[in-house]
Amino acid sequence: MKSLTLSLSIILSISLQAADRPAHSAVTPEPRSGGWMKRHESFNQRVAKGNVDLVFIGDSITHGWEGRGKEVWAKYYAKRNAVNLGIGGDRTQHVLWRLDNGNIKDISPKVAVVMIGTNNSGDGRNTAEEMIDGVTAVIDKLRAKLPKTKILLLDIFPRGQRINEQRGKILQVNQVLSRLNARPHVTFLRIGQNFVSPDGSIAKDIMPDFLHLTPEGYEIWAKSIEPTLARLMGE
Questions:
Q1: Is 7 a catalytic residue?
Q2: Is there a domain that residue 187 lies in?
Q3: By the 8 A CB rule, do 91 and 120 touch?
Q4: What is the mean pLDDT of residues 158-169?
Q5: At 113, phi and psi to the nearest 5?
Q6: Is residue 23 part of a domain?
Q7: What are the residue boundaries of the SGNH hydrolase-type esterase domain, all occurrences included (predicted)?
Q8: Which of 17, 63, 120, 165 is most buried, most CB within 10 Å of its CB?
Q9: What average pLDDT does the chain have?
Q10: Is residue 1 included in any domain, yes or no?
Q11: Distance between CA 17 and CA 132 in Å, rounded?
C-alpha cells in the first residue's frame, strides 16, 4: 500500500527553521481579492478601535465562529473582548499578508489562538515540509509583532470521513509543529482527536462535510481549549 506521506522519521528530522530552503508559496505573503479584501479591511477597522484581549486567527473553520459557531462564541468569548480574524479559504501565505497589513496593528492581545494550514494540504499545493514552514512563519511573525501576546497554536484539525492520505499528511505535520511548544510564549495544544470517533471516523453531526464544524463541533472546540485558554488569559 502506498505510504500516506513522509515517514515519521523523516518528518521529525525537518528543521523548524526554513532559512536554508528556497522560498515557496506557503511562506510568501499573498493577498486575495474580492470579498476577501473587504473582510480583511473590516478586521483592520475593528482592531483600530482597540479593546482586544483575544484573537482567533485562521481559515473558514475559524470564520465559522460567526456562523454555526455563533452561539458557542457568545457563550465563551463575548465577555473576553475577542475578535475573529478567520477568513474562509485562507492558507498560511494569506494569513502572513494579513498580519503585515493591519490585522494586528497597534494591539497587544493577551492570547492569539491560531489554527491554520488545512488549505495548504491539498493536492498540488504544498508539501508537508512547506506546510510546517508556513505555520512556523505565522508563529514567528506573531511573536515578532506581538511580543507580549501568548500564542495558543492548535493542531490542524482532521479532515475526511476516515483516514486518508490528506489526513495522514496533516497528522505528520502536527507531529512536527508540536515542537513549537518549546518556544517562549507558545503553547501547542492537540484537540483534533476530540472530533474523531474511536474507529477513526468523523461523524456528520460534528463535521457534516468532514471538514467544517457544526454547533456541536464548535462546542467541542471551545471546551477542549478552555482550561488552557483561561490559564493563558490569566483568569
A1: no
A2: yes
A3: yes
A4: 94
A5: -95, 125
A6: no
A7: 56-220
A8: 120
A9: 92
A10: no
A11: 9
In the structure, what pLDDT confidence band is assigned to residue 48 with cuts at 50, 70 and 90?
Answer: very high
List the domain range (segments joined by +) for residue 59.
Answer: 35-233
Catalytic entry in 7, 13, 205, 209: 209
Distance CA 80, CA 74 (A): 10
User: What is the per-residue pLDDT for 17?
Assistant: 52
Identify whether 147 is part of a domain.
yes
Identified catalytic residue from 94, 121, 212, 224: 212
Q: 191 and 156 in contact (C-beta within 8 Å)?
A: no
What is the C-alpha to C-alpha distance for residues 196 and 8, in angstroms, rounded to an integer?
21
Catalytic residue among 25, 60, 178, 201: 60
Residue 220 predicted with pLDDT over 80: yes
pLDDT at 8: 43
Write out pLDDT tens, residues 10-31: 334 444 455 566 789 999 999 9
- Residue 60 bears catalytic tag: yes
Q: Which three cell numbers stand for residue 23?
A: 522560498
Exposed, middle or buried: residue 80 (CB in 10 Å: 0-12, 13-18, 19+)?
middle
Known catalytic residue: 108? no
CATH of the domain at 173: 3.40.50.1110
Could you report the per-residue pLDDT of 52-79, keeping only the tens digit for each?
A: 999 999 999 999 999 999 999 999 999 9
Q: Which three cell numbers stand for residue 193?
A: 482527536
Calculate helix-pair angle for 92-100, 35-48, nearest 10 degrees: 40
CA–CA gap between residue 86 and residue 98 (Å, rounded)? 10
